[in-house]
Amino acid sequence: MSTEPMHDIAHLGHLELLTNKMAESAAFFIDVMGMTVSGREGNSLYLRGWDDYERYSLKLTESSTTGMGHVAFRTWSQQALERRVKALERTGLGIGWTDGDLGHGRSYRFHDPDGHVVELYYDTEYFKPEPDQKPYLKNQAQRYPARGINVRRIDHFNCFASDIRANREFFEQNLGFRLTEQIVLDDGSEAGMWMTATNKSYDFAYTKEAHGVRGRFHHVTYAVDSRDDVLRAADIFMENGVHIETGPHKHGVQQTLFLYVYEPAGNRVEVANAGARLILAPDWKPIVWTEAERKRGQAWGLKTIESFHTHGTPPLPADLKKGVSE
Amino acid sequence: MSTEPMHDIAHLGHLELLTNKMAESAAFFIDVMGMTVSGREGNSLYLRGWDDYERYSLKLTESSTTGMGHVAFRTWSQQALERRVKALERTGLGIGWTDGDLGHGRSYRFHDPDGHVVELYYDTEYFKPEPDQKPYLKNQAQRYPARGINVRRIDHFNCFASDIRANREFFEQNLGFRLTEQIVLDDGSEAGMWMTATNKSYDFAYTKEAHGVRGRFHHVTYAVDSRDDVLRAADIFMENGVHIETGPHKHGVQQTLFLYVYEPAGNRVEVANAGARLILAPDWKPIVWTEAERKRGQAWGLKTIESFHTHGTPPLPADLKKGVSE
Amino acid sequence: MSTEPMHDIAHLGHLELLTNKMAESAAFFIDVMGMTVSGREGNSLYLRGWDDYERYSLKLTESSTTGMGHVAFRTWSQQALERRVKALERTGLGIGWTDGDLGHGRSYRFHDPDGHVVELYYDTEYFKPEPDQKPYLKNQAQRYPARGINVRRIDHFNCFASDIRANREFFEQNLGFRLTEQIVLDDGSEAGMWMTATNKSYDFAYTKEAHGVRGRFHHVTYAVDSRDDVLRAADIFMENGVHIETGPHKHGVQQTLFLYVYEPAGNRVEVANAGARLILAPDWKPIVWTEAERKRGQAWGLKTIESFHTHGTPPLPADLKKGVSE
Amino acid sequence: MSTEPMHDIAHLGHLELLTNKMAESAAFFIDVMGMTVSGREGNSLYLRGWDDYERYSLKLTESSTTGMGHVAFRTWSQQALERRVKALERTGLGIGWTDGDLGHGRSYRFHDPDGHVVELYYDTEYFKPEPDQKPYLKNQAQRYPARGINVRRIDHFNCFASDIRANREFFEQNLGFRLTEQIVLDDGSEAGMWMTATNKSYDFAYTKEAHGVRGRFHHVTYAVDSRDDVLRAADIFMENGVHIETGPHKHGVQQTLFLYVYEPAGNRVEVANAGARLILAPDWKPIVWTEAERKRGQAWGLKTIESFHTHGTPPLPADLKKGVSE
């Protein structure tokens, strides 16, 4: 009888995005994405989709650069949090406990093998709507804003990493994430991985960084209710002068209907929908995509845009940038 | 520190539906619902939505009556199955182990307090598509059939029960289901409950049976990808002469875009979509709907149709039927 | 060889709606419907959907009562306007020429046989967007507002009339509208008619007024791009406390996906979508619905709500109101 | 006072497509596009979308080559047909009267300046559904097939032409089509035109042929009800191994949500949706796109695929094919 699956991580909680164009980035998330400000503290603005149940899912922090400040997962319980901390401390990648942040209590921070800062917490604050934010139906966190793209909730994020395998094993062994899909090149090396702790088919992805730079961020994704909503998002990005990098189109991997844009500071943001697709199998066999299969492009034949492999935040150092599609 | 949540049930696996009009019911599920036959054995036909990962999700069995033969949940592991059996045996409601069925191994059957037959199993058979059923994308169980309503996967079921509270506590305590929403009448009695073991906001619901008859079935639901797909399903039901009981409309409870029909033998079947709604909170506080709130009707104001409270399968005995809306 | 079809009316231009709750009605059309103010004059506010090519399609006028001030059609040419005026003058129902209004030049006003005021004009002002209203694509009148329901353009209107046949013949003979569908009761009397001068399957409808009151208004309809947009409109109406009378559902007549609400002053407003349905046949044979067919309810089985036959604006006089569903 | 608009052409009726792979092409239109066979005669199969009111909209003819056999427009009346014939006879491009074809009476054929064969007719046969094709709602031509892509009706076609201006003037002057959009290059030459005789924003388009070959065909388009239906069509094409050339994406010109594929013999076929967009203005000012604007790519930024400018049917002669993207 095999080992039982771990159930300690409940879901992706929030992501901290760094921006060196605070006003423009804030306007993008509020007016174009249709998100709601639910907190301000220090150099940070806290933002949410209308159906995020916690106080916020995005912490936007003014900075001299761009990229991901940290990403946070909520655990299933206080005990689960402590079990994971014990495991993480053994990896030598632990950073330590924090006193919490606006909206959540004590958290434990660590590095993944590629150097991104990841956080675990359990104590959290449910969103409390202001009177004019109260929904008609009380099983909904907040009134539908009917503004901009009206993103519903945070869905997943994507980081670059130089060593995909090392990161995959780290998240599998220490946090209990399950691999649902991956790319394995002809030489046996891993070029991408999609992992989940929920019934969503992925809570995050890591894809191969080609320049040897650590800790780079690829994108954060917000979910809308239908594929048609992604098309409408494209119209709204277009009308607002937002740079659309690629999409809407359907990924072969995970079958997500995707749309990628750069927010004003250059961080990549995705709006996506997965239809009614869920991973319900407790023993899901990871889908392995080969190099040849990836070369077929996206599901409906769109060639993967070159910048998708190179553009990340923060930008590459000047000496690495030559000839790179950004 | 509170008790940790149980994680032994993985998901709703399949439901056995009894029909006394086998040919007509089969045609309904194949031609109108767009499901695929993936097995035949004895008096039963095994059917599936194109994205159900197991061999089937519906067992349609010829019978002298209608209603639910049994419903089955898959566990997270073999150990989880055995833990649940131990708990169930203590309730006195256990029936015992089976040798399995087409598509899955040994299973344990028991009664819920209202007398419905429920089954747990872990060993299962993943669907193996025939050559002409192979999907283009290998992360999908089966080629999209492009026939009828094209239902994607089983979503949930609904039974009637005389004592909602007893059934709720049974599923909470013995199987670890979490209550997400419920109806509590002014006199404190429970009239409906929605429970989940996944990130779907419910895997099943039980609503109040008004006539004191045990073991009745309300409906089984298949998911499609968008709310617009539910509207298209309504067109297809209409064109095929299927009786539409109510919908498409939006439930206040759970916010599902619903559409209810009676398949030819009279069993209620739903086609539904939940958008990108998921219950991700590990400590979700159940939403309690009051009697007054339920009287407001459905989300957009539609009055709940009377037959929704009375029509179930098998039909009521003749002496109970007087004046009942079927 | 039969008479050739007339081509003098180009399309429905605008409708004047009277309100005795100006501030609330204006907020409804701007914030909830997502319309844009494109003019103010006297007691009137001029509003538009983002793809109406003329300056406005709705004139909202402060009044002591509610209902339709007038409705206006644009002709295909100046010559067409003059031809229609000649015909109208012969009917004895002419009112006379006006000096125009904000956004259009000279117009000719007349009564239909039920006493509604109808206007014809040709000279018009195309909408000129302010800098922040400029669309990205120059084949679009105005930037997509991404606010509220985002109605696209005026679609049609519906009036009550005591004598449907008289009104039908009036619009056929004097204005060249073509009948596409109608309801004829068992006694041979007409109970509803749908007429068009375009490839839309109707530019207006008249339905039977039951109380002998002249000049009453039933509703004005704005089009959105998809049936799913109508569902989203229902969510937005719900969130904003707007009274939803009935829908979303599909009409059997004309197959429109409909959603009816009352704006704050009580005028009925519809948001609708017809898919890709067009009447292209130059010799379309009118569809005649019988009394029995109408009793089947709407396309998917919803019973037609009683108030649909009785609620109109202005409200009925007090002595007629007894027992009437409003 | 200016000349009045002509109203002699009612709509695009049908298009004859040549195929040198009859069985495969037929299977594509029936099984994948979801069209219905409504006639067979000689080497031709007659096919229809479920809401085409005439007997058919596509005549598929076995041939030694590919491309367009002819395209046909229905006139508003018999008199309109005769008026147009008189005008066409004066151009020297007339071919002459035919005795009609399956489904329509006498027709007049002529060449456009680029050599395509065009036909006008008035007498037509409305589609008469077989018992199992009868729709539930009698305002619909045929039961919704619920098979494949379920295309609704023919929408438009596109031909290549060497001299766009000459063709535009020919259709304007002799047939009364109105130009709604066009591409004019920096040197003043016209590179594309979109014309209509209806409220659709175009009934056909002509785009610049680069190799000096006459009479080539670009594509025929069928309409579905929503943009989401176009996405689903992409899934169905993908599952059926159909070559997707480009899309789904949104054209800047005309804002159509497009999806282009090659049917098995190589003819390009489009599935598209325009939302609720209509051209209602009788004096619409043609939108002129410049060379620079076209270089921005499609609406959401997709680069126009090279084969879109070169691939047509029949294929280019071998000596012209070098280096051409097909």
From TrEMBL, chains A, B, C, D:
GO terms for molecular function: catechol 2,3-dioxygenase activity; ferrous iron binding. Residues 11-123, 153-274 form the VOC domain. It holds the Pfam family Glyoxalase. This is Catechol 2,3-dioxygenase. The keyword Oxidoreductase applies. It comes from the Bacteria. InterPro entries: Catechol_2-3_dOase, Glyas_Bleomycin-R_OHBP_Dase, Glyas_Fos-R_dOase_dom, GlyoxalaseI/FosfomycinResist, VOC_core.
